[in-house]
Amino acid sequence: MSDLKATLTVDGIDGAIELPVHEGTIGPRVVDVGALTANGMFTYDPGFVSTAACESQITYIDGAKGVLLHRGYPIDQLAEHSDYLETCYLLLYGELPDKTQKEQFVRTVHNHTMVHEQIRTFYNGFRRDAHPMAIMCGVVGALSAFYHDSLDISDEHHRQVAAFRLIAKMPTLAAMSYKFSIGQPFMYPDNSMGYAENFLHMMFGTPCEPSRISPVLAKAMDRIFLLHADHEQNASTSTVRLAGSSGANPFACIASGIAALWGPSHGGANEAVLNMLEEIGDVSRIDEFVARAKDKNDPFRLMGFGHRVYKNFDPRAKVMKQAADEVLAELGMENDPLLAIAKRLEEIALSDEYFIEKKLYPNVDFYSGIILKALGIPTSMFTVIFAVGRTVGWIAHWNEMISGSYRIGRPRQLYTGYAQRDYIPLDQR
Ligand code: ACO
Q1: Is 158 annotated as catalytic?
Q2: DSSP class of residue 16?
Q3: Does residue 59 contact residue 231 with C-beta atoms inside 8 Å?
Q4: 86 alpha carbon to ligand 1 midpoint, in Å?
Q5: Of the listed 307, 314, 336, 422, which one is catalytic?
Q6: Which of 162, 342, 351, 409 lies 20 to 30 Å from 7 when distance is taken between CA atoms?
Q7: 365 is catalytic
Q8: For 80-126, how does the pLDDT look when each residue is reduced to its tens digit (9 = 90+)?
């Protein structure tokens, strides 16, 4: 805490209101407005653009400079030198693991990859054409009906077990959602494989023959999980925290995060990018769509461009772009027509005055959509893959909140409806 104070003068209130100002390790100062309620006032901040809803030590973002740090480590260093499970350890425990800690962590995650056999029958309740995100919202929420022995949120061991279960089982459940939609048998996890390799095995393998997963593609998949692992207090993480603040169990909280992630302004953007590229259909139609994106009277937006926080560049997008180039080269897909549209769009957006002035750069979803398409992942699974990667971030934030002091989240409002009025009987309306 600092000794800094902000003073607020409001018409009709005698004297100025003094508000404490907090300083984090890095980042902007934060005015503590808690004292306002005693003066009969709330703050008004739709979309929470100026509101720090919690104190956290997990992830730091400087949107203007394009910086993203997990526990202090820059995302590009983690993407280059680390892997997804090591980054999970870092996010959960605050430090990089030593060799023994890493082996133990990876072994424990592997021990939890299988799901309760009855969950397999649970899938039969869904329609085959259901969106996999709809299935994930339901199945992940239902985990609390299967794993009663890790629901006591006040018990640190329960929280740990729930964390392992969620990180380990998400790829299994995600792949099952896909297999169910195409009518193929579910694949059991193969714990001799790495996390991302195992996911690709469960997605594309069949019981008829051994899976052969290219190490380059497994690495690209791992990097996608890593780059999505956490992103501070975004919409889905804030949703998980809000749900968790009521004392809800971790599986229910993560299901709420999955629901929030689904929207096209958040995790659904990677799917929307590919749908948009398909709608554009040909490089010759790009100008028409760019013109629509710039037209104030047209709600159309270029999916995969812009970010609420990054107004310079998205550091994840930089790494993802490099991964996209590697994957396309490995698969010999440099001439794919959809990818040609994507590349041209990127060029236009980076040179067009509208996008430059509004600081609209390709975001992580723009390039992850391209890689996932190249990997043969169906578009409807893109956001599910985001959810798999982000699960650790949700858990790390949930755990940080539950293991510290917290109160139920309860925002207030600026009420603009009717003042009190009397009920009118039906025959007089
Ligand atoms: N295409 C065209 N114009 C855009 C775009 C876009 N993708 N994004 C923003 N703009 C324009 C807006 O029309 C607005 O113009 P105005 O000032 O003339 O009214 C201006 O840029 C600011 O836009 P806001 O919506 O106020 O910006 P905000 O920070 O609230 O939104 C968001 C950020 C939601 C990401 C937005 O840029 C968007 O909708 N992008 C497309 C969807 C997308 O890619 N989402 C993924 C985000 S990354 C993630 O979740 C991992």
Answers
A1: no
A2: P
A3: yes
A4: 32
A5: 307
A6: 409
A7: yes
A8: 999 999 999 999 999 999 999 999 999 999 999 999 999 999 999 99
